[in-house]
Amino acid sequence: MSLQSLLGTVVIAVFVITFIVQAFQIPSESMENTLLIGDYLLVDKLRYGGDEFWGHFVPYRPVRRGDIIVFRYPVNPTQHFVKRVVGVPGDRVRLVNRQVYINGVPLREPYVRYTSRAHDVFRDEFPRLDLPAPGLEGDWYLQMKKLVDDGQLIIPEGHYFVLGDNRDESLDSRYWGFVPKENVIGRPLLIYWSVRDVNDDMPIASTPGDKLFHFAYAATHLFQITRWDRTFRIVN
After folding, report:
1. Annotated catalytic residue 206
2. Catalytic: 83?
3. Fewer Cβ atoms within 10 A, N terminus or C terminus of the chain?
4. CATH number of the domain enclosing 50
Protein backbone atom coordinates (compact mmCIF):
# COMPACT_ATOMS: atom_id res chain seq x y z
CA MET A 1 0.00 0.00 0.00
CA SER A 2 1.37 3.40 -0.97
CA LEU A 3 1.76 6.20 1.54
CA GLN A 4 -0.98 8.15 -0.23
CA SER A 5 -3.41 5.23 0.06
CA LEU A 6 -2.51 4.72 3.71
CA LEU A 7 -3.10 8.39 4.50
CA GLY A 8 -6.42 8.27 2.63
CA THR A 9 -7.51 5.26 4.68
CA VAL A 10 -6.51 6.98 7.93
CA VAL A 11 -8.42 10.15 6.98
CA ILE A 12 -11.56 8.14 6.15
CA ALA A 13 -11.28 6.18 9.42
CA VAL A 14 -10.87 9.37 11.46
CA PHE A 15 -13.84 10.96 9.68
CA VAL A 16 -16.06 7.93 10.34
CA ILE A 17 -15.07 7.72 14.03
CA THR A 18 -15.46 11.48 14.52
CA PHE A 19 -18.74 12.08 12.72
CA ILE A 20 -20.57 8.84 11.92
CA VAL A 21 -20.06 5.92 14.34
CA GLN A 22 -18.25 5.28 17.59
CA ALA A 23 -17.45 2.06 19.41
CA PHE A 24 -18.74 1.77 22.97
CA GLN A 25 -18.57 -0.98 25.60
CA ILE A 26 -21.27 -1.58 28.20
CA PRO A 27 -19.54 -1.25 31.59
CA SER A 28 -22.39 -1.82 34.05
CA GLU A 29 -25.61 -3.71 34.64
CA SER A 30 -27.85 -0.62 34.58
CA MET A 31 -29.40 -1.43 31.17
CA GLU A 32 -29.99 -5.18 31.66
CA ASN A 33 -31.53 -7.07 30.01
CA THR A 34 -31.57 -4.77 26.99
CA LEU A 35 -27.80 -4.30 27.11
CA LEU A 36 -25.44 -6.52 29.09
CA ILE A 37 -21.98 -6.07 30.55
CA GLY A 38 -19.66 -7.23 27.79
CA ASP A 39 -21.78 -5.93 24.89
CA TYR A 40 -19.73 -3.96 22.36
CA LEU A 41 -21.78 -1.39 20.45
CA LEU A 42 -21.55 0.77 17.38
CA VAL A 43 -23.12 4.14 18.18
CA ASP A 44 -24.85 6.12 15.44
CA LYS A 45 -23.62 9.71 15.93
CA LEU A 46 -25.66 11.23 13.11
CA ARG A 47 -29.20 10.34 14.18
CA TYR A 48 -29.59 13.33 16.50
CA GLY A 49 -27.14 15.63 14.68
CA GLY A 50 -29.61 18.40 14.03
CA ASP A 51 -27.03 20.33 12.09
CA GLU A 52 -28.27 22.15 9.01
CA PHE A 53 -25.55 20.66 6.78
CA TRP A 54 -26.07 17.02 7.81
CA GLY A 55 -29.85 17.45 7.78
CA HIS A 56 -29.77 17.47 3.97
CA PHE A 57 -28.02 14.09 3.77
CA VAL A 58 -29.06 11.93 6.73
CA PRO A 59 -32.40 11.00 8.37
CA TYR A 60 -31.93 13.34 11.34
CA ARG A 61 -34.65 13.36 13.99
CA PRO A 62 -34.97 14.71 17.54
CA VAL A 63 -34.53 12.55 20.62
CA ARG A 64 -37.80 10.84 21.48
CA ARG A 65 -39.24 9.25 24.56
CA GLY A 66 -38.17 5.59 24.63
CA ASP A 67 -34.88 6.12 22.75
CA ILE A 68 -31.68 4.62 24.14
CA ILE A 69 -28.90 7.22 24.04
CA VAL A 70 -25.17 7.37 24.69
CA PHE A 71 -24.14 10.65 26.30
CA ARG A 72 -21.45 12.42 28.23
CA TYR A 73 -22.18 12.10 31.95
CA PRO A 74 -23.18 15.62 33.10
CA VAL A 75 -21.31 15.32 36.40
CA ASN A 76 -18.10 14.18 34.69
CA PRO A 77 -18.20 14.68 30.89
CA THR A 78 -15.11 12.51 30.38
CA GLN A 79 -17.32 9.49 31.14
CA HIS A 80 -19.86 8.10 28.69
CA PHE A 81 -23.17 6.63 29.90
CA VAL A 82 -25.99 4.80 28.16
CA LYS A 83 -29.60 5.07 29.38
CA ARG A 84 -33.15 5.22 28.04
CA VAL A 85 -34.99 8.52 27.59
CA VAL A 86 -38.29 8.55 29.50
CA GLY A 87 -38.93 12.30 29.48
CA VAL A 88 -38.35 15.06 26.91
CA PRO A 89 -38.54 18.87 27.29
CA GLY A 90 -41.88 19.99 28.71
CA ASP A 91 -42.80 16.60 30.16
CA ARG A 92 -43.87 16.21 33.77
CA VAL A 93 -42.31 13.09 35.29
CA ARG A 94 -43.33 11.18 38.37
CA LEU A 95 -42.74 7.65 39.75
CA VAL A 96 -45.33 6.09 42.01
CA ASN A 97 -44.48 2.66 43.42
CA ARG A 98 -41.99 2.18 40.52
CA GLN A 99 -44.54 3.07 37.85
CA VAL A 100 -43.43 5.99 35.66
CA TYR A 101 -46.06 8.61 34.86
CA ILE A 102 -45.54 11.14 32.08
CA ASN A 103 -47.94 14.09 32.16
CA GLY A 104 -50.19 12.05 34.45
CA VAL A 105 -50.34 9.02 32.14
CA PRO A 106 -48.67 5.70 33.09
CA LEU A 107 -45.79 4.87 30.77
CA ARG A 108 -45.76 1.38 29.26
CA GLU A 109 -42.26 -0.06 29.70
CA PRO A 110 -42.02 -3.73 28.66
CA TYR A 111 -38.20 -3.51 28.70
CA VAL A 112 -37.88 -2.67 32.42
CA ARG A 113 -36.28 -5.15 34.81
CA TYR A 114 -36.54 -5.14 38.61
CA THR A 115 -33.90 -6.97 40.64
CA SER A 116 -34.86 -6.01 44.18
CA ARG A 117 -37.97 -6.69 46.22
CA ALA A 118 -37.01 -3.97 48.67
CA HIS A 119 -38.96 -0.74 48.33
CA ASP A 120 -36.80 2.37 48.25
CA VAL A 121 -38.76 5.55 48.92
CA PHE A 122 -36.52 7.90 46.94
CA ARG A 123 -35.88 5.54 44.04
CA ASP A 124 -39.42 4.21 43.60
CA GLU A 125 -41.47 7.27 44.65
CA PHE A 126 -39.73 10.01 42.70
CA PRO A 127 -39.41 12.98 43.06
CA ARG A 128 -38.98 13.20 46.82
CA LEU A 129 -37.69 16.40 48.42
CA ASP A 130 -38.03 15.40 52.05
CA LEU A 131 -35.13 12.96 52.41
CA PRO A 132 -31.53 12.43 51.25
CA ALA A 133 -30.56 9.31 49.31
CA PRO A 134 -27.26 7.45 48.74
CA GLY A 135 -25.74 8.57 45.44
CA LEU A 136 -27.81 11.77 45.23
CA GLU A 137 -25.82 14.71 43.81
CA GLY A 138 -26.11 17.80 46.01
CA ASP A 139 -26.36 20.28 43.13
CA TRP A 140 -29.13 18.20 41.55
CA TYR A 141 -31.07 18.08 44.82
CA LEU A 142 -31.04 21.88 44.98
CA GLN A 143 -32.03 22.23 41.31
CA MET A 144 -34.79 19.66 41.64
CA LYS A 145 -36.48 21.69 44.38
CA LYS A 146 -37.08 24.49 41.87
CA LEU A 147 -38.52 22.19 39.19
CA VAL A 148 -41.08 20.15 41.13
CA ASP A 149 -44.71 21.19 40.85
CA ASP A 150 -47.62 19.21 42.28
CA GLY A 151 -45.32 16.24 42.91
CA GLN A 152 -44.10 16.16 39.30
CA LEU A 153 -40.67 17.04 37.94
CA ILE A 154 -40.85 19.47 34.99
CA ILE A 155 -38.19 18.87 32.33
CA PRO A 156 -36.76 22.16 31.03
CA GLU A 157 -36.07 22.99 27.39
CA GLY A 158 -32.96 21.35 25.92
CA HIS A 159 -32.80 18.55 28.52
CA TYR A 160 -33.82 14.89 28.87
CA PHE A 161 -34.73 12.67 31.80
CA VAL A 162 -33.15 9.22 31.51
CA LEU A 163 -33.45 5.95 33.44
CA GLY A 164 -31.74 2.58 33.25
CA ASP A 165 -33.84 -0.39 32.15
CA ASN A 166 -32.51 -2.27 35.19
CA ARG A 167 -34.43 0.18 37.32
CA ASP A 168 -33.22 -0.97 40.76
CA GLU A 169 -29.53 -0.98 39.80
CA SER A 170 -29.18 2.29 37.92
CA LEU A 171 -27.79 5.63 39.04
CA ASP A 172 -29.59 7.83 36.56
CA SER A 173 -31.51 11.11 36.30
CA ARG A 174 -33.17 10.44 39.62
CA TYR A 175 -29.78 10.84 41.31
CA TRP A 176 -27.80 13.32 39.19
CA GLY A 177 -30.26 15.18 37.00
CA PHE A 178 -31.00 15.87 33.36
CA VAL A 179 -28.93 15.13 30.26
CA PRO A 180 -28.36 18.39 28.31
CA LYS A 181 -29.01 18.10 24.59
CA GLU A 182 -25.39 18.99 23.81
CA ASN A 183 -24.17 15.99 25.85
CA VAL A 184 -25.95 13.48 23.62
CA ILE A 185 -23.46 11.57 21.45
CA GLY A 186 -25.85 9.27 19.61
CA ARG A 187 -27.86 6.09 19.81
CA PRO A 188 -26.67 2.47 20.00
CA LEU A 189 -27.13 0.97 16.56
CA LEU A 190 -25.69 -2.53 16.68
CA ILE A 191 -24.11 -4.99 19.10
CA TYR A 192 -21.14 -6.05 16.98
CA TRP A 193 -19.74 -8.39 19.63
CA SER A 194 -20.79 -9.64 23.04
CA VAL A 195 -18.66 -11.57 25.49
CA ARG A 196 -19.28 -13.20 28.86
CA ASP A 197 -17.11 -12.47 31.87
CA VAL A 198 -14.01 -14.62 31.39
CA ASN A 199 -13.97 -15.43 35.11
CA ASP A 200 -17.24 -17.33 34.67
CA ASP A 201 -15.51 -19.79 32.31
CA MET A 202 -12.02 -20.09 33.76
CA PRO A 203 -11.26 -23.44 35.41
CA ILE A 204 -9.50 -21.72 38.32
CA ALA A 205 -10.21 -18.51 40.17
CA SER A 206 -8.13 -15.51 39.13
CA THR A 207 -7.22 -12.33 40.92
CA PRO A 208 -7.03 -8.77 39.57
CA GLY A 209 -3.26 -9.22 39.34
CA ASP A 210 -3.52 -12.14 36.90
CA LYS A 211 -3.93 -9.84 33.90
CA LEU A 212 -1.64 -11.79 31.59
CA PHE A 213 -3.30 -15.12 32.39
CA HIS A 214 -6.73 -13.48 32.05
CA PHE A 215 -5.83 -12.07 28.62
CA ALA A 216 -4.30 -15.33 27.41
CA TYR A 217 -7.35 -17.32 28.44
CA ALA A 218 -9.69 -14.88 26.70
CA ALA A 219 -7.60 -14.87 23.52
CA THR A 220 -7.59 -18.67 23.30
CA HIS A 221 -11.27 -19.12 24.20
CA LEU A 222 -12.94 -16.42 22.10
CA PHE A 223 -15.40 -18.85 20.57
CA GLN A 224 -16.54 -20.17 23.95
CA ILE A 225 -16.93 -16.81 25.70
CA THR A 226 -18.65 -15.01 22.82
CA ARG A 227 -22.42 -14.60 23.17
CA TRP A 228 -23.22 -15.55 19.60
CA ASP A 229 -26.95 -14.98 20.05
CA ARG A 230 -26.26 -11.28 20.78
CA THR A 231 -23.58 -10.64 18.18
CA PHE A 232 -24.78 -8.41 15.30
CA ARG A 233 -28.05 -7.73 17.11
CA ILE A 234 -29.85 -4.45 16.38
CA VAL A 235 -30.43 -2.38 19.54
CA ASN A 236 -33.96 -1.17 20.21
Report:
1. no
2. yes
3. N
4. 2.10.109.10
